[in-house]
Amino acid sequence: MKMLWLIGFATGTATLAVGCGASPDPAPAGDGTETPATPSASPAPATPTDTADGGAGDPAAPAADDSSEEPEVAPDDMIARGVSDEEPGLAQTAAPVPSSCDRGALQVCLDYGGGDACYAKAGCPATERVCAARQLQICLESKGGDACYAKHDCQKGVDTPTSDRGATFSRYYAGNYPAIRTAARKFWPNSFGCAAYASTALKMGGFGLKQVLLTNDVESQLKAKGWKTVTNLGALRAGDVVFTDKATSNVAGTYSHVYVFHKYASPGYAIISDNNGNNISRNIGPGPRSRSVVAYRAP
């Protein structure tokens, strides 16, 4: 009986919830999760009943995986440092990219005119073809016609030309989510911290960021890299990195959450990628999850 009691005690201790950011110092007592914001009085799309960020949200939008897989157990030091804000069920949209090929570096190199030399620089085989969407845009603007598509390994009607680095990053994150998730978990094992995911995606996407655990550290790096501050959250663009209010953060003075915006889903809701899943719906303004307050856009 004593042995069974000890096992039960150990199990109960190991299943404590942990929060989005991470702090070098012990976090305040509590479950460490992002506290849902109070919904506004105005009508809003149907919202999920779970308490995790990035739930089903708008029924018409793609939903996150709602599997009942048990979350990985976090070591005590992670619980103390407050790393969390995740759901264990994560949607996948593409097969993992081989670790020898840095597809993010390849995409950025090609978009900025590096040509075929980019494949060797990124450690990728020549068969790992990537549409250089930015070069495609330049070619089309120069009246190169449909020949531009083949020239830049793009398919007409499938690939969208763009001069926007953010759009390139949005496509990269959504298309390589499993590889980003793997790298984020390797950086911060047994945890799904939102800052770890965002900084990992930005690093792998070729933006030169370091992997970090605090949302504020993601923001400071974006500012240092010249990313533009966006306060009009009704005019977000694909690839914008969005931060939510600090009021519900489990680490004092830090943003409660960070995610990457892909597109609007319905009034007040967006399709995003974060540590909760890929191409999932989340409220932007007041709603079941923390309210978004500021975004940063690639230069």
Task: Describe how the helices and strands are arranged.
Blueprint lengths: L1 H13 L61 H6 L21 H9 L5 H5 L11 H9 L5 H5 L13 H11 L1 H11 L6 H11 L10 H10 L3 E3 L10 E4 L13 E9 L2 E6 L2 E7 L8 E6 L2
Antiparallel strand pairs: 1-6, 2-3, 2-6, 3-4, 4-5
Can you put this structure into words, describing what you see?
By secondary structure, this protein is of the alpha+beta class. It folds into two domains: 22-95 and 180-297, endopeptidase fold (from Nostoc punctiforme); 103-173, no CATH class. Helices cover 30% and strands 12% of the residues. The protein contains ten helices and six strands. It has helices at residues 2-14, 76-81, 103-111, 117-121, 133-141, 147-151, 165-175, 177-187, 194-204, 215-224; strands spanning 228-230, 241-244, 258-266, 269-274, 277-283, 292-297. A six-stranded antiparallel β-sheet has the order 1-6-2-3-4-5. A hairpin with a 2-residue loop joins strand 4 (269-274) and strand 5. Helix 3 (103-111) runs antiparallel to helix 7 (165-175), helix 8 packs across helix 9 (194-204) and helix 9 (194-204) packs parallel to helix 10. Mean pLDDT is 72; it is low at 1-19 and 21-98.
- Using the coordinates shown, work out and report the CATH topology of the largest domain: endopeptidase fold (from Nostoc punctiforme)
Under CATH at level 1, the class of the largest domain stands as Alpha Beta
Specify the number of helices: 10
Give the strand order of the largest sheet, numbering strands 1, 2, ... along the chain. Answer: 1-6-2-3-4-5
Q: What is the gyration radius calculated from CA atoms?
A: 20 Å
**Largest sheet report:** 6 strands, antiparallel
Portion of residues in beta strands equals: 5-15%
| CATH homology superfamily name of the largest domain | endopeptidase domain like (from Nostoc punctiforme)
Number of domains: 2
How confident is the prediction overall: mean pLDDT? 72
Under the CATH scheme, the architecture of the largest domain is Alpha-Beta Complex
